[in-house]
Specification:
One of its GO terms (molecular function) is UDP-N-acetylglucosamine 1-carboxyvinyltransferase activity. It is found in: Cytoplasm. It catalyses: phosphoenolpyruvate + UDP-N-acetyl-alpha-D-glucosamine = UDP-N-acetyl-3-O-(1-carboxyvinyl)-alpha-D-glucosamine + phosphate. This is UDP-N-acetylglucosamine 1-carboxyvinyltransferase. With 434 residues, the chain is an alpha+beta fold. It has 2 domains: 3-19 and 237-433, UDP-n-acetylglucosamine1-carboxyvinyl-transferase, Chain (Alpha-beta prism); 22-234, Enolpyruvate transferase domain (UDP-n-acetylglucosamine1-carboxyvinyl-transferase, Chain). It contains 14 helices and 23 strands. It has helices at 22-31, 48-59, 87-93, 103-110, 129-137, 170-181, 196-207, 239-251, 269-275, 321-328, 349-354, 388-400, 411-414, 420-426, and strands at 3-7, 13-16, 38-42, 63-68, 71-75, 112-115, 141-145, 150-154, 162-164, 186-190, 211-213, 219-223, 231-234, 255-258, 281-283, 286-289, 306-309, 334-338, 359-363, 366-370, 382-384, 404-408, 430-433. The strands form 6 sheets. The chain has a 4-stranded mixed sheet. Strands 2-14-16-15 form a 4-stranded mixed sheet. α12 links the parallel β21 and β22 (404-408). The chain is globular, with a radius of gyration of 22 Å. The N and C termini lie close together (9 Å). The structure holds uridine-diphosphate-N-acetylglucosamine and phosphoenolpyruvate. Phosphoenolpyruvate (PEP) binds next to α1 and α12. The site of uridine-diphosphate-N-acetylglucosamine has 18 residues, from α1 and α6.
Length: 434
């Protein structure tokens, strides 16, 4: 279990380029299974989860070449569909959430799939019902193997239909869309997730010959085709990294430019940080954050305390709430952070309390932060990263704190943030991997 040692208190300065989007990468890389032709994918982040998925595809017989560090050429012309039934797949696939999205393409092209109990963050219950019920509506049968916790799916023939999803699941929508591209007839998905990740997937599928309309909305129509071909696709900048860097700049009073932030794909993210009183300027596709002595949380128009909560896109992503929470600890004013989707994502506030933050955890979903307004600094402590975003939030807290912090279990951070220590050192941070 590796750790970061962080000496806090330095003001950072400079330019940082966001990596390619992790959650987009997991969808896009799964989609290469839909064709026997070559698919070139660029701006791939070099992070644990994505590398594991690429390894998984190689184990399945997909040919992968890497002309440069961030680009892969995939060719799924000799896939061993039986590999999915193996224990090796269950073990490796079970290490990341993204492995569930191998199922849609496998069902569509090879008529069978297995979904291992997926890994990913332990942030509360994360059901797969939307995926499975969607496949079932397309004509697949499933068995749930209780003891090993995996789903076995088969589909001699997928047939398009109308479906109204129970919830706009991000990976669920991606999975059903991928299966529907090769189904007979037309599939209509209402209450579909429409995050930029899903939009990017649909655009890539269309460039492979799929016929998807309604991209960017919650009503997707997919006219099935008989085969898909090769294409090239470039991942968007990771919007969660962009948000994390905005928060980090404010919290550490740093002047930072986020270069190539993919501004048009950020939705409400910049405005949510502005609601915390953080100044930021959009300069073309860059975001400039000036060094700020103080930032003051706004109130609602009637003067009541601001609430920041998550909501399916185009609402605010749950993956940035931990960052918002930590940044609010040094703001002037108060905010209620309401994490609606996940039950166990706010428990990391214990560590912030130990660092001297003023937070009241109201219940597992809600925390009220009373900003310190820099009256005193957080103090460095030893802590363990519980999940990817809490890990990054604690790293930001440590960078702003007085003294030295040790963050353990940083595999959680490495799951989603590429070379984070190296990139932060370039901005002037004192961070060391132990
Ligand atoms: C690999 C990947 O892409 N992971 C992302 C994906 O996970 P993932 O696709 O697994 O998450 P889902 O969209 O399925 O849903 C997440 C959780 O929120 C609940 N839920 C979902 C929709 C809704 O309207 N109401 C609701 O309460 C679900 O029951 C589930 O417990 O989307 C999540 C929600 O944006 C993000 O946190 C994850 O980073
Ligand atoms: C929850 C996340 O990831 P995963 O779905 O892979 O656990 C995340 O990216 O914040």
């Amino acid at each position: 279990m590796a750790s970061f040692e962080v000496k806090g208190g330095n003001k950072l300065n400079g330019t940082i380029v966001p990596q390619g989007a992790k959650n987009e990468a997991l969808q896009i890389i799964s989609a290469v299974l839909l064709t026997a032709e070559e698919v070139t994918v660029s701006n791939i982040p070099d992070i644990l989860d994505v590398n594991l998925l690429i390894e998984l595809l190689e184990d399945m017989g997909v040919k992968v070449s890497r002309p440069s560090r961030d680009t892969c050429i995939f060719k799924a012309d000799a896939v061993d569909a039986d590999y999915l039934a193996s224990e090796a797949f269950r073990n490796k696939g079970g290490k990341l959430r993204g492995s569930v999205m191998v199922a849609g393409p496998m069902l569509a092209r090879f008529k069978k799939a297995f979904i291992p109990k997926p890994g990913g963050d332990k942030i509360g219950r994360r059901r797969l019902d939307t995926h499975i019920i969607g496949f079932e509506k397309l004509g697949a049968q499933f068995d749930y193997h209780d003891e090993e916790g995996f789903f076995q799916l088969s589909s001699p023939r997928l047939k398009g239909t109308f479906m109204l999803l129970d919830e706009p699941s991000v990976t669920g929508t991606a999975n059903i869309v991928m299966a529907a591209t090769l189904a007979e007839g037309t599939t209509t998905i209402y209450n579909a997730a429409c995050e930029p990740y899903v939009q990017q997937l649909c655009k890539m599928l269309n460039s492979m010959g799929a016929r998807i309309s309604g991209i960017g909305s919650n009503l997707l129509t997919i006219e099935g085709v008989t085969a898909l071909g090769g294409t090239s696709h470039r991942m968007l900048p990771d919007m969660i990294e962009v948000g994390s860097f905005i928060g980090m700049a404010a919290m550490t009073q740093s002047e930072i430019t986020i270069k190539g932030a993919g501004v048009e794909h950020l939705g409400v993210i910049p405005d949510k940080f502005r609601q915390l009183g953080i100044q930021l300027e959009i300069r073309g596709d860059d975001i400039y954050i000036p060094a700020q002595e103080k930032y003051e949380i706004t109130t609602f128009l009637d003067g009541s305390v601001l609430t920041v909560y998550d909501h399916p896109w185009p609402g605010f992503t749950p993956d940035l709430l931990s960052i918002m929470l930590v940044v609010a600890t040094q703001a002037v004013g108060s905010v209620l952070i309401h994490q609606k989707m996940f039950e166990s994502r706010l428990f990391f506030v214990d560590k912030l309390l130990d660092m001297g933050a003023q937070i009241i955890l109201c219940d597992p979903h809600r925390a009220t932060v009373i900003g310190l307004g820099r009256k005193h600094k957080l103090r460095g402590i030893t802590m363990s990263s519980p999940d990817i975003r809490a890990g990054q939030a604690l790293l930001i807290a440590a960078l702003s704190a007085e003294g030295t912090s040790i963050i353990q279990n940083i595999e959680q951070i490495d799951r989603g943030y590429q070379y984070i220590d190296e990139r932060l050192r370039q901005l002037g941070a004192e961070i060391r991997r132990l």
